[in-house]
Amino acid sequence: MTTARLACCALVLLATLSACSSSGETLVIYSGRSQNLVEPLLNQFAEESGTSIEVNYGDTADMALLLAEEGDATDADVFLAQSPGAVAYVDGLGLLSAVPDDVLDLVPPEFVADDGNWIGVTGRQRVLVYNADLVDEADLPASVDDLVTEPYRGRVAVAPPNGSFQDFVSAMRVERGDGATADWLAGLVANDVATYANNNSIVDAVSRGEIEMGLVNHYYNARFLDENPNLKSVNHRFQDGDIGALVLPSTASVVAGSDQPDAAAAFIEFLLSDDAQQYFAEETFEYPLVAGVPAPSALPPLADQDAPEVDYGELGGDLTGTLDLIRDAGLSS
User: Fold this and answer.
1) What is the CATH number of domain 124-246+317-328?
2) Three-state SS for 6?
3) What does the alpha-carbon distance between residue 150 and residue 293 come to, in Å, rounded to a whole number?
């Protein structure tokens, strides 16, 4: 990414949320979560805590690259990331500092960085969304590996530019190695996979019958159905333990060198409060990660599923390698 594009990312979608602050200091948040999803929570924190907040919204990968470009000179205090691969990348550069132990203890250890430098806030599961008018439930695949076989030729969509798809490919690399992952990606292309720009585009296309099925995160279809319950798009979860059922956490972290680490930690703790976790479940249809907060309606609790285990910290170690594999397979939006 060019310096000019990074500068553009720093200027685009800059929003300042103000609240009365006795100290006059401002907590600066770099958010890879979209404004329409998290702004209500940020406003609530600002009002309840009396903390002035400045939020820089943008794509998670762009925010990660901006932090990398700014380094020690950044004004950011908190990094909210949609992609665990992006936050692992930033952590690998030494740009994050430890979240307090009492905050880390709020979520299961599998959603906490080994070094304690980031913590999961919500869970998003990879699923196959399909059109119930076009696909018989009995014909749905048990494994993501089935999608490269003849019965699914020309029937499946993916979103190569999407960070969650890239994290999924990175997880497959960790689990199976580069050779097997490259073979799977090449198998998609050979099987006439359709490509779209993002998850929303896939769900929209599936609901209209443009394509029969596609790989997305679970909550996208939930939002479509919330707007129009008559849509024919349905989420299908792959068999327990299959890499296709991967759960990807959104994350929060304290930026190294923050001059307000206590306020940053307080903000992260707020995101893990019961009220905030319930907001994510009810308004964005994501899985809460704090015990005792119910999952979104009609979704099985994460604790009842045998999701594949993955070291999320490894997902950001070679993002370039993942992008190369996707590109070399011939996948593009």
Assistant:
1) 3.40.190.10
2) helix
3) 42
